[in-house]
Amino acid sequence: MRCIDKKRRLLSIILIIAILSAGCISKKEKIVTEYETTNYDRYLYEGELFANQLCVSNENVSLNDFEAASSLHAAALFGVDQKKVFLSEHMHDRLFPASTTKILTLYLALKYGTLSDEVTVSKNAVSVPSDSSVAGLREGEQLTLEDLLYGLMLPSGNDSAVAIAEHISGSVDAFVQLMNQEANALGATNSHFVNPHGYHDKDHYTTAYDLYLIFNQGIQNEKFVDIISSPSYTTDIKEPDGSVRSVTWRQSNLFVNGTRTAPENVTVVGGKTGTTDEAGACLVLYEQDSQSRPYISVVMGAESKNALYTTMDSLLSTIPGLSQ
């Protein structure tokens, strides 16, 4: 009898616990459901807001009077203020970016670094592949982060890129991780970076549209614009023995260094070049029309420098007609 009472009591306790547990689960499910519903709506709103602030197109968009080189991989033209894609030719195709990668490196250095920081050039920084474009840095030299940024963007120095990466994140690997995180946060989800300079790697790729997203964020920073629009830059670099040498870096972008003139009623503010055998010749530009309205143009994969600039000329020539 007592054993039966104990069993009944035990069964009662188990039943009560089960009922209470069911109540807890239901309450938890309700909380989770409410959270998911609330945040789903919020994420939808944020996604719409993100899209409303940018140029968006999932399809190819043609542009009258634009003539592209036959070998071209991709081309695009964006009206920054109009938030409109005026041209889209394969702008979502994954392509090798070459040194246009440095747009992201510059953006991150300005976001996380201090321009006046003194940086010592490491052996790793000067050990880039022999066919790299370089700023001519030497192991043990000291210069500021600001100096390195000009060495990154004007002569397109891969050595500067490595020195910047090591200074910002402690190592190139850590900086590359930051590159991918930040690119993804900007919406550049079709990109993957494995180095800070764009030297060819089959796993290092982006799209014309992703370059627009990154570049568009970069030009919101006044210093970013100052650097990409500079025809040349001169600085003093401290040698390991304490002596000082003066260097002058000149812009590789023909529109900025004065070698090439932009079409009438278009002003090229600045940009970034990039060339490898695999990527072809690439160019990202920030320009303005006669009313100072901003545009971003991207050309990727031209077979030669001449084809690149001829194509970009054709693209820029369409801008005055877009503002009418």
Automatic annotation (TrEMBL):
EC numbers for this chain: 3.4.16.4
GO MF term list: serine-type D-Ala-D-Ala carboxypeptidase activity
SUPFAM superfamilies: beta-lactamase/transpeptidase-like
GO-annotated biological processes: cell wall organization; peptidoglycan biosynthetic process; proteolysis; regulation of cell shape
Keywords, sorted A to Z: Carboxypeptidase, Cell shape, Cell wall biogenesis/degradation, Hydrolase, Peptidoglycan synthesis, Protease, Signal
Keyword Transmembrane helix carried by entry: no
Location of the Peptidase S11 D-alanyl-D-alanine carboxypeptidase A N-terminal domain: 75-303
Active-site annotation: S99, K102, S156
InterPro entries: Beta-lactam/transpept-like, Peptidase_S11, Peptidase_S11_N
Any matching Pfam family: Peptidase_S11
Record: residues binding substrate: K272
Family to which the UniProt record says this protein belongs: Belongs to the peptidase S11 family.
Name recorded for this polypeptide: D-alanyl-D-alanine carboxypeptidase DacB
